[in-house]
Amino acid sequence: MFLSVFDMFKVGIGPSSSHTMGPMVAAARFLDMMRASPFEFHGLRASLHGSLAFTGVGHATDRATILGLGGFVAHDYDDGKAEAFLADLAKTHSMQPEGLPALHFDPKADMIFDYDHALEGHANGMVLMATDAQGDVILRQVFYSIGGGFVVTEEELAQGKATDEGDPVPFPFKSAAEMLTMAKSSGKSIAEMKRSNEIARGCSESLSKGTARLWQVMNDCINRGLERDGILPGGLNVRRRAKGIHDALQAERGMNLTAPHTINDWMSVYAMAVNEENAAGGQVVTAPTNGAAGTMPAVIRYYLDHVPGASESHVEDFLLTAAAIAGLVKYNASISGAEAGCQAEVGSASAMSAAGLCAVMGGTPEQVENAAEIALEHHLGMTCDPVKGLVQVPCIERNGLAAIKAVSAASLALRGDGQHFVPLDACIETMRQTGADMHDKYKETSLGGLAVNVPNC
Questions:
Q1: Most buried one in 23, 85, 197, 221, CB count within 10 A?
Q2: Shortest CA distance to 178 belongs to which of 160, 168, 190?
Q3: Which of the 8 DSSP states describes residue 25?
């Protein structure tokens, strides 16, 4: 089983990897299908189902789908060009993606929120359609956005877990138990094994450049979030708080007036800065999702800014270790809030971050696995119930608390020798079962929990 670090961590835009980036990716795939088709197309249509419909407006799913059909992609997204495109579309009801003729699309009529008909394959379902001159559908494809920006067609989902058909990798672990066995027999760390796998599918230079860019985007996102204030979009009137908290923390430095637990505020403010940027539609890195995008950057920034002896040269090992844990969670359970609740998003992010921090602080593979297990175990059962469908409440603060848990989990694991009672594999399987048993109203539909017990305006 191989999932690249660049599969798990993708540069994209907010506010949601599954509800914003995923639909944009699906639209790009549909355009490719149209380009390869012999039919003559005259129009486009899209319908959103399940969680994509219920929280689509708050997650900008309709906007992302339309932009994707217009040819926009997340990795080089230009907000100014996007706004100009949407303004023109509202007037002309026409778009012309590259390699295709002008296509009719009326955002009010052809972007459909279907709240009554969920698709069977996954909670995040959508149907993209192309029509002929009479308006009849001549090409149709069901897509499922399965979390973290990953998208599969109806047919791909029916085939089960995708077969890994690439070049063989030297350490093809599918479970934490296999990972530890391979680490012991090879004498390599988890990061070293993951690096060998990546190089077997690519090259060391592209790996180094790619991981450096991931951290640059993460860190730039923190810095932007620490500098901006104001009200987040969406109608909840949630204030950006990261700048104010950060300003206060900086003012207190060197005054010997702060309590030791103030370090938690630093971890939280880094995470909140990222998730406020995400909520505003800014550029983030899925880690493993947009809703959980702040946890890992916060822990890396905590490591670099507050841990004696920390070095930016270790960030690649952090990311590789975290990606190894993320791959195990995705392969054996889920990283989708719509599928398994927030335990699958923020819980996974905390486990990944705990593992990465433990690794760069000298932890053995056994201690790294223990750190991931501690962090994930103490997020089990966490629901996903965003107020008004926005990735703001409770998501922004939740990332900060997940970062704190990650650091605590890594510290506890480093205090031990790697032996512990609950294996990471058992914790991942418990998370999968808990997600399967969880009521749908607590899985990113905004039909339960905080979403119905807190005023939406």
A1: 23
A2: 190
A3: H
Nearest residue to 418 (alpha-carbon basis) of 180, 172, 187, 188: 180
- Token digits for 296? 């890992």
Q: Pick from 264, 271, 215: which is nearest to 411 by CA?
A: 264
By DSSP bridging, strand 11-13 and strand 283-285 are antiparallel
Helical spans, DSSP H, in 307-423 = 315-332, 337-340, 346-360, 365-377, 395-415
CB 179 within 8 A of CB 328: yes
CA angle 332, 387, 243 (to 5 degrees): 95
Decide if pLDDT at 399 tops 60: yes
Has residue 457 got a pLDDT over 70? no
pLDDT tens-digit readout, 177-213: 999 999 999 999 999 999 999 999 987 789 999 999 9
Mean pLDDT of 10-32: 94
- Residues 126 and 187 both lie in one domain: no
Q: Phi and psi of 159, rounded to 5°?
A: -80, -5
Does pLDDT of 45 surpass 60?
A: yes
CATH classification of the domain holding 334: 1.10.4100
What residues contact 207, with CB distance under 8 A and at least 6 apart? 5, 195, 198, 199, 316
> Two tokens at 73?
């992609």
Q: How many domains does the chain have?
A: 2
When comparing pLDDT for 399 and 253, which is higher?
Answer: 399
Q: Is-contact 117 52, C-beta < 8 A?
A: no
Task: Give per-residue pLDDT as tens, 258-271.
Answer: 789 999 999 999 99
Three-state secondary-structure class, residue 106: coil
Asked if residue 456 lies in contact with residue 369, where contact means CB atoms within 8 angstroms, the answer is no
Q: What are the backbone angles phi and psi of residue 132, rounded to the nearest 5°?
A: -95, -170
Helix (H, G, I), strand (E, B) or coil at 162: coil
Establish if 9 belongs to a structural domain: no
Please give the residue range of the domain that contains residue 279.
176-453
